[in-house]
């Protein structure tokens, strides 16, 4: 075999391998026995050659080609290459749907077939509303609303309104300048107030430390009171108070009892009168002894004795005075 023939065969093999590799990279296998079906859509924004064909969430094929049809309203004819084991029919629908990232896929929806397809047939198609279309529709409505609002605002902001707004802004600027001037003129007072606040804050910090110590002392006192045997002390105090109450009750009973000595002393008026009379008699006797001491004490040096008469006055319980005359004998000895 000549050298030219070898080169020609090598070139043919390279071209065939290049074609097969190119189609394989595009997602088409020239050596496969897959079946081809067709689907026509009004537009296929985001659908590319090699896009997957999905059945029940599983890839069963891919888009082999996209062809523009000017004679049919510029619709798009998509060639779908499916695996040989997939059975389609006259009820099968090829739905065009999109993802969040903007890419689109074709999803097969199977139904009850009255006729089965063997390849080359055109499938029924449906187009789902994509997220991009929904966003675009919402954005269109929103833009219309914004335009309408801006038109109302422009109509409201006429020349007089603009003048008023400008006057308001000028007044606000003047007020800001006046406030700034006031702050600058009173800067010394503001600094003094700031220093006073700092001193007050420092004093509060010191007071806070003292309050913390006081709270700690109260906490310790509370703990000491909690640990102290207050219960037994209170029980002893209650017992002592009960005994004192019992004793006072006994004294009160004895005082109210008219048969006892204390009861008679308090409640018997006769005993009171007798004691009063006795005290009065004792007072009278002492007074008489002071007035007439010779009637009670007599000195005799030579002996002998004479009878002397002594008058004794007593006060009766009813307040009357009674005078009695008594004889007193003397002896020869010194009598005291």
Give a brief description.
InterPro entries: Mce/MlaD (IPR003399), MlaD_Phospholipid_Transporter (IPR052336). The chain is of the alpha+beta class and 336 residues long.
Helix-strand blueprint:
Layout: H1 3-25, E1 35-41, E2 52-55, E3 58-69, E4 75-82, E5 88-89, E6 93-98, E7 104-109, E8 116-117, E9 124-127, H2 131-156, H3 159-185, H4 187-227, H5 230-256, H6 261-267, H7 269-291, E10 307-315, E11 321-329
Parallel strand pairs: 2-7, 6-9
Antiparallel strand pairs: 1-4, 2-3, 3-4, 5-8, 6-7, 10-11
Level of helix content?
A: 40-55%
Provide the residue-averaged pLDDT. Answer: 78
The structure class reads: alpha+beta
Largest sheet: 7 strands, mixed
Give the strand order of the largest sheet, numbering strands 1, 2, ... along the chain.
1-4-3-2-7-6-9
Strand content: 15-25%
Q: Which residues form runs of ≥5 with pLDDT under 50?
A: 330-336
The total strand number stands at 11
> H/E order of the elements?
HEEEEEEEEEHHHHHHEE
What is the 3D form?
Answer: elongated
The helix count comes to 7
- Radius of gyration computed on alpha carbons: 68 Å
Distance between the termini: 196 Å
């Amino acid at each position: 075999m000549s050298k030219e023939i070898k080169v020609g065969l090598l070139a043919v093999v390279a071209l065939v391998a290049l074609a097969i590799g190119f189609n394989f990279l595009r997602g088409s296998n020239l050596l496969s026995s897959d079946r081809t079906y067709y689907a026509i859509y009004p537009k296929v924004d985001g659908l590319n050659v090699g896009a997957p064909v999905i059945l029940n969430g599983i890839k069963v094929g891919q888009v082999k080609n996209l062809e523009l049809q000017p004679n049919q309203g510029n619709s798009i004819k998509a060639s779908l290459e499916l695996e040989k084991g997939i059975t389609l029919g006259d009820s099968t629908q090829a739905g065009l749907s999109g993802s969040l990232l903007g890419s689109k896929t074709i999803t097969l929806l199977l139904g009850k077939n009255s006729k089965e397809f063997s390849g080359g047939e055109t499938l029924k198609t449906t187009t789902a509303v994509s997220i991009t279309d929904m966003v675009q529709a919402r954005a269109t409505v929103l833009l219309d609303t914004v335009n309408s609002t801006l038109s109302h605002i422009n109509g409201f902001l006429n020349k007089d309104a603009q003048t008023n707004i400008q006057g308001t802004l000028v007044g606000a600027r003047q007020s800001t300048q006046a406030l700034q001037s006031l702050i600058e003129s009173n800067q010394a007072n503001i600094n003094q107030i700031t220093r006073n606040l700092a001193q007050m804050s420092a004093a509060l910090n010191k007071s806070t430390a003292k309050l913390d110590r006081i709270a700690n002392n109260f906490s310790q006192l509370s703990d000491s009171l909690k640990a102290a045997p207050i219960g037994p002390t209170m029980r002893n105090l209650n017992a002592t108070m009960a005994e004192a109450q019992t004793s006072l009750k006994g004294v009160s009973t004895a005082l109210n009892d008219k048969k006892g000595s204390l009861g008679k002393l308090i409640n018997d008026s006769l005993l009171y009168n007798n004691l009063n009379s006795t005290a009065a008699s004792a007072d009278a006797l002492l007074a008489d002894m002071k007035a007439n001491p010779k009637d009670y004490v007599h000195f005799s040096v030579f002996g002998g004795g004479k009878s002397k008469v002594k008058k004794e006055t007593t006060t009766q319980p009813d307040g009357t005075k009674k005078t009695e005359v008594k004889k007193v004998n003397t002896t020869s000895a010194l009598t005291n």
